Amino acid sequence: MSSPHSGELGAPARHLDDGPTSSQLGPLEFLESDDAEEFEYEGDYDTRMAELMSEGGDDAPKPDSASDEEDGFVYDGVDADVPTSYSDQLRAVLGPEHESEDDTDELDEVETSLIIQDSEKPMQPENESFSDATPSTSSVGLPGTPPRTETPSKRPLSSQLFRSYIHPSVSRLRSFTPQSSRVQSPGSGMMNSHSLLFNSQSLSRASSSSNLHSQSSERQEGSTNHDEREVFRWTQLRNITTHLYSHKASSVMGNLSLGSPTTLAANGLICIGTDEGKVCVYDFQQDLKCICGDEGSPLSHDHTYVVSGHATGYIQLYDLKNPRVPARTVAPTTLASVASGRQEGHLQGSRIVSVGFIAGRHTAIVSADEHGLAFSHSLGKVLFVEAPDILRILGTYAVEEAGKAPLNPLLQRRRARFTVLAMMPLPLGTSPHPTDAYNIIALLTPKKLVVVSLKPTPKTWFKCTREDVRGSRRRGAMSWYPSVVPGAAESSVKPSSKAEPGTIPVLAYSWGKTLYFIKVFESGNLVHEAFGKWSADSDILALQWLNSKQIVVMTATTLEVFDITLMKTIERVERDALSLVSPTLGLTVRGALSYADAAGDVAHSIRVYKGKIFMLGRETVEVGTLLTWADLILTYVENGQFLQAIDLAKSYYVGEAPGNKNGLPEDEAGRKEITGQRVRDLMVASARYAFSEERMTDSTHVTSDGRGVDRTSLFEGLVVSCAQASIALDNFDFFFEDLFQYYDDAGISRIFLLQLEPFILDNDIRFVPPRITQKLVALHDEGGRPDLVERVIWHIDPACLDINQAIHLCQRHQLYDALIYVYSSALRDYVAPIVELLGLIRKIQRMRIYGFETSIDEDDIESTMAHTYKVYGYLANALAGLSYPAGQSLDTDDASRAKSDIYGFVFSGRSIVWPPGEGGDLVLTSTDEDGVEPTYPYVRLLLEYDAESFLHSLDIAFEDGYLNNESQGVSRLLIVKILLELLSSGDLSQSDTTFINIFIARNVPKYPQFLQLAPSALHNVLIALTEDPDPSSREDRQLAAEYLLSAYTPHDSDSMAIVFRIAGFYRILRTWHRQEQQWVPWLTAILDDPDFRPAEVFSSVEDVISSAVSPNGDIPPEVDNSISDALPRLLQSDIQNTVQLLQKHLPHRHTQAVEELGKLGRNKQYDYLCYLFGPPRNDDSESWVPAWTPGSKVNIPSALVQQYISLHCEFHPDNIVAVLQYLPESLLDWDRAVESCETHEAFDAAVWALNRHGDPQKSLSKAEGYEQQVMIKILKDLSSPSEQERGSDLDHQIDMLQSIARTTVGICLAQSRSTDTTDVPLEDIWFQVLGSQISCVQRVSSFYTRSTSDGDATAKVERAWKTLSSLRLIVQDTFSSLVSVTSTRAVSFPRLFKRLVNSASRTELSSGAHYDEFRSILTGMLESYRSDGDILTISKHLVDRDLFETVSEATRERMRGWAAPQMACAFCRQSLFQTPQKLDQEFLHIVVSRTGTIYHRRCLPQD
């Protein structure tokens, strides 16, 4: 609980080098002269400000870094013997830029003196960042062999060993794959588009990179996976904490009680106010200087003043030279004095919420209280007597509003519009500014910001009204940043004696969650300019300027640093604001404030001074510093985490580091100059540390149990971090020269090489010195991993390779991808790879002819064949101007040379010598050693080996513009002529011939200006496409023919149509016939095509009919006849679609279709008629709509309808009634329908049909006869001696009786409920129905009685009893239906029952106990009614109980609710049930308070 003396502290701004944060809330300010009433700029202004801003003299000790800069970084841990200070050596590396913004003695005092100098232990380096600390048996661990990637398993030899590796889904000559164009971009990776086609077993560069992606990602994540980044470094002020928070124990022992801390001020000194009305003043050494208000306190050595405001309304000004008594006191006044006009000021009992000094005067202060009154006080003296001048600048007294004497102010309810959320005068900055002369004061209320001035005359200059209502309406904060010399704070330079232009003062203020920024300057008058706004996640509780560009924002859960130049948060840490002291928390006991409002009132517990953040907590006092980039790096280095330090410095260099960039230049060049040098220094220092002699043998390599520690991770991480840093710097001198030499000298170059390899494979490092490349290649060669050798060679710049070594290894291990890369990229020899691979092809061809009588082992056959197909991929890339295997674009000159050399070699008419000149060998292709070389030997060999792959490569090459210029000596036409010449020779196989024809046919229309062939040649190609008997290539040949026909039209189309029909080119025929409007041939081409799916067939037939139909809607007879002839095929394909087609276009063909289906079976006819007539089905098994609907205008032969009814009775007699109901009566022949039902024993349908025809009595008579027929069969089944004779008809017969009973009862019910006056004897028809059913029961009962008395088999008796029970149930159901209608018309149940009894007694089957059956029937009915009654009773009780509980709960909830006096929002006055259009969703929700006030959710006040 706060005492009556608790209040606020204030002090004149003095030490403002880093901004005005020391006096935002005005708790503490200092001046040197106690007799200066006004602060003047003239005279000693510069001297005074220099003294105020000084942080130490120029002779402050600085580290001597000359020798350190020469030697680089030197590690200073427990395992290194370095006599100098570690921090001094680090600062020698990082330089002076890592220091904070004000590097003077006073700042050092703030930075270091706040920490209690305990006996510190020596710093231990955190070796975990260098090693996984895994014990091993060796004292110095070397890295083990990395896990090897598995080699692709070889496929077993099979009969398909010598088949083409081409995959039909990627070839450009195939018909069913989209044509993929060559990718032009350098990084497109052409190999990816051809890798499946040529089926290379080795990884391409792109594929190897992707395979190692996860590995490299893990490497990068591991190298940059720092611990959670430290943003602020907090230090507890232990002396101050001990002095303040141990006062309770002191009071118990009889010592002075200071009270509980309430407010904080930090401005050169640390002042803390307590609820006992005392102010404790400490210096930055945490020594207590004085206690203001304590007569026993010693004198302070500082000559400053402090002002405090109290809960009773008093304001006291203390001279710290004499803190025992106040130098000035402002007493509260009364309402009577105010009303009489004798005095202004705070009323008695008004709690002071804010005080502050105006400008540089210590006797001019401004204050505000809890009732919204704000005053300026000029505390002067006249003849040694206090003569204060008090001016009200905001607020009104309650007596002025009411016009009468109010009640006690302490008992009045505080109104939000008179609340001062924050108040602060504009402090003086490091640079004079015209606004200083105005004595500006900013006041913040819940609804507006008011800026006033006291000079030259008091005046309100402007107001800013609150528009955004988000957040609490009673939460606000503000902070001024005065005019300063630009760059002065950052460069730590004292204010110059010369007048320099300063910055414009900035005011930051907040309402709720929203933070605003305005500039205030003079332009004739005082004007302002808003320049920014930002919203936090929750209410802003406090604001403090950290420097000219950054402001500290405190919310309930976070502490954030906001950059006004970027207008975003750059730092954010979790910080509980409830842990800070709130001076108003004690007011919650009396109910004056809510706990939520009081707990968040922490603005007086946080201060910033010279970049240091002071916080007054409930249990401790802390000071924190926002860590700069150099501080973070220094932290890693001090902890021995050198690799993390390198990574962090690198991230600052590339601009990817998170958080603030304080201390770094804003321009990229300046930032990179500073951080780049630090990265280099850290790499050098880390390498020296890692490979120092002491480091290699010190105690960090031995565990406590005497075992060794594997330090492999340290050396691996050093390579990774330095590699990443060198990539960022684009400077590899240290990495390849110095760092590699360290590893090589230590005998662990393997670690360096293995960690370097991922960077090479990811193309991050392309240029590697040849000596290192040699070692890396040799490392994998010695390890038996030729696949890794190939990957390395692919990704290294050719200039870095040892050519002889690379070629030797590639030839020895058959690394043909790498060999092609070396030849083409390093030697610029583009023909040599083809020569090498043609040699392999020749060997395979010889093996195909002579079997295994070659030098190739059987185990190597498959891999050798895989290598041969690389020639096609190489040709595709090289002729397209791309490198192999990377697929990157070649330089123009290299691409032109490659194409010229390859075209000249491949399409040479005879064998040539390669390499040209002396020492070259003749490149032969013949399979015989002494065989004759044919013309165009190399084209022939490539075609014979795999024509599709070769032509695929040529198709890609044809897209290149190189072939447009015929002066190059090669053109598309020349190549096509060569292919035609090879075709005419007759030496090629049928498949090769087909692919050549496909290639020509598809390219002629693509390049008409370049490929101008004779019509006869094109005709020959077209004919050749039709003559191949292979059905697997028919679609490919047909597509090629379509291409060719787009550029060439044959003269004799009729003969060609015959040729196409024989070849099966039906798609071409359909196109031709459609264009010529030849309907029958078009229809024939559709029906004859075996590749057409049924759905496509019917849609195409519909297209034919729709196109052939005449304007008057008639279908040509030839089309009708063609479809008639095709009906068997259409029906066999899909019956339902055939029905739809005929019903839509040819309904007169239904009869023919049914007749055709008769050959396949009556079930097919039934399916057809079901699809035609329906009714529609929509169930789980089938869903369809019939082709014919009852409202259709198409005439259907009645014979089909009758046939459908007959077939339905045959296959589904149980559902015939639904069919009869669905079909219109006009189509039905009722007599024949009844006859069909009787024939197929669909008795219920027959009875229903007779009744539907208008003769209910006849239908019931028929039903009686049907029941007797069924009973005869039932009795026969019951009398059958064996299961085989009885079969399974008994259950079926019982079901028939039940269906007849349901139909007859339905007829009786309909007649009983009918309002028709037709004379139908109701009692007679009921008697007829019940009499027939009872007769059936009596006959079965008589049989059961005889069976029981004769001692028949148990099974026979059980069957009889089961049947009897079923029949009795039928009678009971009939009686129940009768009872439901006995109240209608002339049906008397007693009379009817008597007739039934008398009738039963006269039958031949009746016996002396003929009443037994009636007794059983009635007993069963009564039991059924009794059960139904019990169920209804139970249900009623359950419903009553649930209803009672529901109503009771609703009543309780209604009693707990709050009644709203009106159905309108109390804030916006809009109706709650008329939601305005285009508003937020929050308007759709309402909130009712316990007082009955009702709001929209978005209009709800947050306080």
Automatic annotation (TrEMBL):
The highest taxon in the source lineage is Eukaryota
Here the segments flagged for biased composition (Acidic residues) are: 31-44
Bias-annotated ranges (Basic and acidic residues):
216-229
- What are the GO BP annotations of this UniProt entry? endosomal vesicle fusion; protein targeting to vacuole
* GO cellular component terms attached to this protein's record: HOPS complex; late endosome
Give me the ranges of the annotated region Disordered.
1-82, 116-160, 173-194, 207-229
List where this protein forms a coiled coil. Answer: none
What positions does the domain VPS8-like TPR-like repeats occupy? 1297-1454
Q: Where is the composition biased (Polar residues)?
A: 126-140
Recorded hits in InterPro entries, A to Z, give: TPR_VPS8_2, Vps41/Vps8, Vps8_central_dom, WD40_repeat_dom_sf
- Where the record annotates domain Vacuolar protein sorting-associated protein 8 central, the positions are 751-958
Q: Which PANTHER family match?
A: VACUOLAR PROTEIN SORTING VPS41, VACUOLAR PROTEIN SORTING-ASSOCIATED PROTEIN 8 HOMOLOG
What name is this protein filed under? Answer: Vacuolar protein sorting-associated protein 8
